[in-house]
């Protein structure tokens, strides 16, 4: 399990063993925190299928498969109140939505989690299936993917509306 700084801290405080996304990305967080996850290793691990060609490319480029992506968005506009335009722009999440959309696109191979209400049921299924993503039925992963796109679309609409204010 890997996470960005804030999530890594919360998970570690809860007793979870968690690495930093930079370990998976093969690069440090860059540009003042703007680039953490938009890297070939992270996105390649999310978008990879279990085909011979994908597996060969993953091996050639040292890409680790990602089984689950969990992303929570800021609640907008509440998270941007009083920060001005420059502060608002810095709150716009680019990597999280990209990872979540990639996981939803590739839901046959990756579990997309975008709603905290789904955490416990999905973790229970994973526990019962020895941690394998295949423990989550495809119908459930399709529903999770639909929800991920729905939440992503609502987030994008909230961001768009903030540009008009």
Largest sheet: number of strands, sense, barrel closure: 2 strands, parallel
List segments where confidence is low: pLDDT < 50 over at least 5 consecutive residues: none
Strand line-up across the major sheet: 1-2
Which whole number gives the mean pLDDT?
Answer: 84
Could you estimate the helical fraction of the residues in percent?
40-55%
Question: What's the SSE pattern?
Answer: EHEHHHEHHEHH
Quick summary:
This protein is mostly helical and 165 residues long. The protein is built from 8 helices and 4 strands; from the N terminus they run βαβαααβααβαα.
Note the main attributes of this structure.
single chain; 165 residues; mainly alpha; two-stranded parallel ribbon; 8 helices; globular
Provide the fold topology.
Layout: E1 2-3, H1 5-13, E2 19-20, H2 21-25, H3 40-47, H4 52-60, E3 68-70, H5 84-91, H6 95-105, E4 111-113, H7 119-128, H8 138-163
Parallel strand pairs: 1-2, 3-4
Helix pairs in contact: 3-6, 6-8
What does this structure look like?
The chain has helices at 5-13, 21-25, 40-47, 52-60, 84-91, 95-105, 119-128, 138-163; strands spanning 2-3, 19-20, 68-70, 111-113. The protein has 165 residues and is mainly alpha-helical. A two-stranded parallel ribbon has the order 1-2. It has a two-stranded parallel ribbon with strand order 3-4.
């Amino acid at each position: 399990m890997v996470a960005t700084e804030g999530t890594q801290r919360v998970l570690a405080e809860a007793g979870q063993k968690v690495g930093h996304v930079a370990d998976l990305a093969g690069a440090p967080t860059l540009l003042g925190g703007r680039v953490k996850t938009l890297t070939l290793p992270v996105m390649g691990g999310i978008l990879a299928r279990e085909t011979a060609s994908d597996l060969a490319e993953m091996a050639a480029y040292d890409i680790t498969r990602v089984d689950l992506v969990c992303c929570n968005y800021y609640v907008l506009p509440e998270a941007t109140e009083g920060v001005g335009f420059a502060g608002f722009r810095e709150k716009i999440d680019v990597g999280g939505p990209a990872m979540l959309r990639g996981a939803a696109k590739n839901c046959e191979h990756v579990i997309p989690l975008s709603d905290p209400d789904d955490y416990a049921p999905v973790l229970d299924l994973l526990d019962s299936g020895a941690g394998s993503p295949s423990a989550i039925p495809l119908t459930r992963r399709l529903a999770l993917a639909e929800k991920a796109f729905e939440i992503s679309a609502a987030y994008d609409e909230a961001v768009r509306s903030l540009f008009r204010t």
